[in-house]
Amino acid sequence: MFKRDLDAERQWAWLLKEIEKQISKRPKDLNEVLFLIGVQELGQGAKRFEKEEKQDLLHIAICKVLSLAGYYELEGLDKEGWPHWKLIKKLPHFNMLEQERLLKMHVIEYFEKEYGWKILTSEFGENISE
């Protein structure tokens, strides 16, 4: 494993622990983190969502985090307050593992930019929060 991959895994583990501190539940995977981002970006608070709404929340989250890399742009909100995104730059063709890496990288960036979290790893593999 390359050092950058190891650092990315350490940052991801740190992020999951930090989310657990905030919501008292550790997300089990990327989809759960994306769901939380989708709920946050929707801005209607925690509530029970239908299956289709949950899929829409994942889409909102993916568009939001990939907007940080210039792939999507927010078009606006519909009458129910749901955000709609427009693809502005073609996404690269990645296999599933590469897609997950890309999303995790931008999810980490999302928490750094939106919440000011400093997600760092030391050269000794210890997670540092400032």
What does this structure look like?
55% of the residues lie in helices and 12% in strands. It is mainly alpha-helical and 130 residues long. The chain has one domain. The strands form 2 sheets. The protein has a two-stranded antiparallel sheet. A two-stranded antiparallel sheet has the order 3-4. The radius of gyration is 15 Å and the shape is globular.
Most strands sheet? 2 strands, antiparallel
| Low-confidence residue ranges | none
Judged by helices, strands and strand pairing, the structural class is mainly alpha
**Percent range of helical residues:** 40-55%
Mean pLDDT across residues: 90
Radius of gyration over all CA atoms, rounded: 15 Å
What is the number of strand segments? 4
Cα separation of the termini: 27 Å
Summarize the helix and strand pattern as letters.
HHHEEHEE
Net shape: globular
Number of helices: 4
Descriptive tags:
two-stranded antiparallel sheet; mainly alpha; 4 strands; 130 residues; 4 helices
